[in-house]
Specification:
single chain, 664 residues, alpha+beta, Glycosyltransferase, Beta-galactosidase, Chain A, domain 5, five-stranded antiparallel β-sheet, 19 helices, 36% helix
Amino acid sequence: MERVEQFLNLVAPVSVNDDTALKYAQHLEELFDVIVPEMIGEDFCAAIKNNDYATAVKVCAKYYREKPDFTVPELSGKGSYSIQKAENCIKGIAREINIDWAFPNGEVDFLFDPTELKGPINHEWLWQFNRHEYWSNMARAYSGTGDERYAKAFSAQLLKWIAQTDIPEKWNGPGSAWRTIECGIRLLGSWPVSYDGFKKSLSLSDVTVLLMIASMHRQSIHLVEHPTEKNWLMMESNGVYTFSSLFAELSDSKNNRKIAAERLLAELEEQILPDGMHNELSPDYQSVVLNCASNFYSLALNLGVADEIPNAFVELIHKTVNAAVLLSTPAFTQPRTNDCYTILTSKFTERAEKLLGSKPEYRFVNTNRASGEPPKGETESAYLPYAGFAVMRSDWGADAAYMCFDVGTLGVAHNHQDKLNINIYKGSQELIYDDGGGQYDISQVRKYAISGYGHNTVLVDGLAQCRKGPCFADEPIDSGWITNDVFDYACATYDDTFGNEMIKSATHKREVRFCKPSFFVVSDTLTSADGNEHDYEALFHLDTTKVNELSDYKNGVISDYGKDYEIVMIPIDEETAPVELKTVSAVTEPQMQGWYNGRNESDLHEAITVSRKVSKVKDFKLTTLFFPVKAGEPLPLVTKNESGTLNVYFEGKEYTLDINELNK
């Protein structure tokens, strides 16, 4: 009997029609073409020699079922799990990008996108659903409980996925379950975990076990043949390396592993800036790259080939984690720069400590300050000169005052129009926010959230900044950085274009001074670039729906968060033209304002945009003092001297401030 006929007979019990049977048979043929028989054993070799594929399938499945479990924790089928999520998986109840969907009758459709029904359209729902993280959870739930319902549900869904999803002509386009980033993510995590957790269950037939391996192999070949770039290539290469390392019995595994390692190492060197930040300037994607590098190194350790990895690779991991620690807010989270959700700093430090050993700053973060030490620098503040992040902090305590001031480039991807943006924390509370841009949907809200309108920047003639580059810095960015025990200072100028028509109408110079340990000064100098008069408007975003005006200060406001801290904003503007104060919440016309567009941890909701606008002037300076004030405590007292300097009394301390010389 021909091999293909034998395979068709073998897959018949798990096939629903002739087309499915043919597809499964083709998968098994591909797998058997690359299996090295001697590595499976004598019985397998004999079966192949005798053209007995029924026995070969049985022997091969037995080999893989009995193969030792994965010892790399991230790939193990044993671990923590959620019973509720496992039950939802059985019932066909899914949640992706904060959107819930229950498949009718529990019948999962891997090519269905509920956002096309409900709107706004977000192709990420289908893509991320096909990353199959819910299978990882169900596999670990099965390992922990032995409940065969989980194995049966997994087997049915796996077989349907293989039958339903072919590689489309535009595999990286909408509606594809074979986008290369998803293939990489499946192979570096969810599929190996699911395989490891379920492989011994008799609810999975021998054919099903081998079909899963065959599909993983097909995905790895797809990635080898169609590499992309940037963080995608990191995830793709990590997936190929992971699969090829775990399934060394395949004839192309060694070569594919070599290709993946070379790509991954080259990308890591390319993507990590000299200051340790990832070149997309997003802590989210920095963590993605770190995970890829860490998974790769963890596998190399597990396989006993860590000595093959250059020392520079380990140093790059340390550098990446160090940047995350320096950028960390007092809550030990990362500021949401560019596309980002709330990332815990421990996501970096815990992985690094487990993989590379303890360092004082890793211990400091991982124990929430109970042991270890904070990073040692000239002061507690830090400047990342290639990323362009000026991080100003009062101390490393849980109640510190903190600002991240962005003077950098766009970033090579996932970028926002946000040069000169600031965000301010006091302790764990974000008082002036950057929401990270929300979901990747097709909507006006998304456009707003990544634009200058959705950041703490300045509008010129109602237009937000709009630049095409540069995407990364070849050399350190000069921000005039000063840090000492008295103050921190940084400045930068936006001299690019505004609006979709790319108009070069004015320049915006922003200076920031942190008067330690308590308050921040933000000075915005607007200068006409075309000789004409313009309208200038400074925007600041607060995640509350209430602010109150301060009667003692013209255009001064105080937030009404109703939490531990409020933010007091006191303007010290030029008096050559009137400045109008506006506070808007949840408006959509003529331009969206007053919205917080969160991702993962926070849905879209109403917020407040505070703005100060001056009209029909060539040049103007808007200066704002920001005071984080503990609820119920005295407000700051600010008075102007005849010399033009300011006297500030706040939290029992007196300051004298010259807003024209903030760097002195």
